[in-house]
What we know:
Order of helices and strands: HHHHHHHHHHHHH
Number of helices: 13
Number of strands: 0
Structural class: mainly alpha
Radius of gyration: 38 Å
Largest sheet: none
Helix content: 40-55%
Shape: globular
Strand content: under 5%
Amino acid sequence: MARQYREDMKEPKPKSVKLAALQPAAKPRMPQATAKPRSLKPTARPRKPKSAYSTEEVEEIFRRFSVQRPEPKGELKYVNPFTLVVAVALSAQATDVGVNKATKALFAIADTPEKMLALGEDAVREHIRTIGLYRNKAKNVIALSRMLVEDFGGQVPRDRDELVKLPGVGRKTANVVLSMAFGQATIAVDTHIFRIANRIGLAPGKTPDQVEDHLVRVIPNHYLYHAHHWLILHGRYTCKARRPECEHCIIADLCKAAEKTNTIPAPLVALPPQVF
Length: 276
């Protein structure tokens, strides 16, 4: 009994305590504030460049052009809308004088798409070999002739979207054809018009399409039909690329080109009819 008593008097062994229970209680996390969404501002559209001239000044510029050249004409020779399409397509990187020399004999024997196809690419190439890029241009002449016959019944379309489908015909060529063959008021931006529009600040633009759009917006409607030729002829014979002949310029007092050398306008008189 004594032995049993002594065993009963022993202290009980402490139970094992887990380590996690001894760690301090984690502090409750504070809820994070929800970030406010950034306001999305609409992307600003690039501003279109403005003309350097007021409406009144543009009116006066084209009034003088209309007095100087009452009936301006293109200098390419053609006999019908088809030959005009061909002539304008050939004029890329070539002079009108050079194209006229090359196409005189060509148009005498092939003035329709059907006749041009019958003539063939080799013969066309021989006729226009004095023109730059004549090999590729001969291919385009045959290809556009074939498309006109197969898709348009041999007739030149009167719609820009249809015209630019023709091989070798771009927007400029289409606008020339619409203006000269069908009497539509269009602006065909060539190197002369592109240079002048930017040089004098009439209708600044980085591309021909931008210049075209700008010119259509600033030129008065009653001058729009002839504006294309007035600007080309002004650039070709007065506002030349290398050295503008400001002493012969009828808008020298209005011109805002940085490099102009004269502020006195040339006499405003009608020029003799154009001779080709």
